[in-house]
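REQUEST FORM: STRUCTURE PREDICTION
Request ID: SP-0412
Submitted by: Lab K.M.
Chain count: 1
Length (residues): 272
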Amino acid sequence: MTDISEMKRSAQELRSTIVSMIYKAGSGHSGGSLSCVEILTVLYDEVMNYRPDDPNWADRDRFILSKGHAAPALYATLARKGLIDPEELGTLRQLGSRLQGHPCMFKLPGVEMSTGSLGMGISVGVGMALAAKLQRRKYKVYVLCGDGEMQEGQNWEALMSVSKWNLDNLVVIIDRNHVQLDGTEEQVMPLGDLAKKIGAFGLKVITCNGHDVAELCAAFREAAEHCGPVAIIAETVKGKGVSFMEGKSIWHGKPVSKEEYEQAIKELKISD
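STATUS: Completed
RESULT:
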């Protein structure tokens, strides 16, 4: 098992990397990238089975970033784990770069699905999970959704399929930061008791603090031990780690100025 303190440190370093990428690019989605950092850290450090030197290994676990606007967090994670060159992170959103504003599976190793149009990740995950069963392979599929995209109907159709085929090799993770592009989830389209709703579709629902590495590890262990499909609702904060970004919808995709960048990096600095 990876050391908890090491994963915490890696997550904080990822936040600095994400802010630096978005500042250099002059655009990008900081709020939703910063809220899912610990989720990605635990998935890639502790949970998923994959080979950085063989990204197309047939038995690798699949990860789908359904909330594709959080691409900076995924790119920074892929670089940290050796799937892409860290030097490439400085090319985010630049002309000719493989690091597009939303991930493209045809350009970058480790990207299983081109995402950006929200609400499609679970549906594709269902297909991958069914394929694994039909091919008698042991890999698992992990889909990370934003809570805003749970307002879209296709997700609920997909969850019915998850339940019908008892896809115990699929884990849905919801980055529950309660904020989306135009305001809070309550203002835009209230989801109500999300855990109860998902549970009514036949999935086991596990709720945890999405910024607590130990809680996330425990949630994924519980999911692995359950004989059936699972959804993990990770309670998070939009823009986590940067005081002026936290919980603010304006930071869904606002450019970072020089002064804001310097303040953010100062706040994210790790004390030795």
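NOTES: The domain at 4-268 is CATH 3.40.50.970 (Rossmann fold).
Reviewed by: T.R.
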